[in-house]
Amino acid sequence: MNLSIAATPSPRLDARDLELVLALVRGGTLAEGGRLLGQDLSTVFRALKRLEQRLGLTLFERGRSGLVPGELALALAKSAEAVEDELDRADALLRPGERRLAGTLRVTTTDTMLIGLLLPLVAEFRALFPLLTLDFIADNQLASLSRREADVAIRATTKPPEHLVGARLGPIRSALWAHRSLLPAPPAVPDPSTLAWVSPDADESLADHLSVRWRRRVYPQVQPALRCNSILAVAQAVRCGAGVGVAPRFLLQDQPGLVALTGDEPALDTELWLLTHPDVRHLRRIKVFFDFVRERLVLP
């Protein structure tokens, strides 16, 4: 007598499973994943629970701040992005005369670069790709590309992370600025150390900012009168005459009433980089964003 035992078939994934995992990896929470899918939170919760039960695996750890994808979830999200990209390509073949690129592009940067450099370009980019949704994540703590918290990072650094790929957009030059109302009448030359200073070192992430290091080295006796938690806030305070402070030229150059108290200061210079993870650099939405930013963004 011959006995045979049928093997239990492995669970299979379908397109909706991949779409769910990708939305949750991108969104980071059930609510945000539901928003990306056009579904409510409870529907997404039940769908994830069913999928994990069917697979017999945990795809996401539940944390205080949301969902933390495991290695399998990240791998599935990568596959889902490849499918999404191929669908975009196929759609473009059907409509060769239209800009049909769709989906979501998540960009992590600081509020300084978002306000000063990126938002002025958004209207033109949206006109070219009206179906592509842009999610900007503006924070001093930049979202992780490796964990798929964002697709693209725009960072001020002279040493971009080795595990990322991208393009150098140019130098970011800064100066020490003051409003004319704070300065003595010409021909008197102001001594910056006698003026009130605005500094970004109210935030731990900015305590070692190059402008803070420069001030401590060049003007060690200065104690800031006003401390903020962003370079954008420093620039706005200087613009309002609240004190002198270091800010990028792209924010304050040619602003009425403002004077640069320093010329070229290499110690205040850094570089602007456009970065992404090697696993997703082939995606069309990332390619078109890279090409657009490299062509349109101009640094003074």
UniProtKB/TrEMBL annotation:
<keyword id="KW-0805">Transcription regulation</keyword>
<protein>
    <submittedName>
        <fullName>LysR family transcriptional regulator</fullName>
    </submittedName>
</protein>
<comment type="similarity">
    <text>Belongs to the LysR transcriptional regulatory family.</text>
</comment>
<dbReference type="InterPro" id="IPR036390">
    <property type="entry name" value="WH_DNA-bd_sf"/>
</dbReference>
<keyword id="KW-0804">Transcription</keyword>
<dbReference type="InterPro" id="IPR050176">
    <property type="entry name" value="LTTR"/>
</dbReference>
<dbReference type="InterPro" id="IPR005119">
    <property type="entry name" value="LysR_subst-bd"/>
</dbReference>
<feature type="domain" description="HTH lysR-type">
    <location>
        <begin position="13"/>
        <end position="70"/>
    </location>
</feature>
<dbReference type="Pfam" id="PF03466">
    <property type="entry name" value="LysR_substrate"/>
</dbReference>
<keyword id="KW-0238">DNA-binding</keyword>
<dbReference type="InterPro" id="IPR000847">
    <property type="entry name" value="LysR_HTH_N"/>
</dbReference>
<dbReference type="Pfam" id="PF00126">
    <property type="entry name" value="HTH_1"/>
</dbReference>
<dbReference type="InterPro" id="IPR036388">
    <property type="entry name" value="WH-like_DNA-bd_sf"/>
</dbReference>
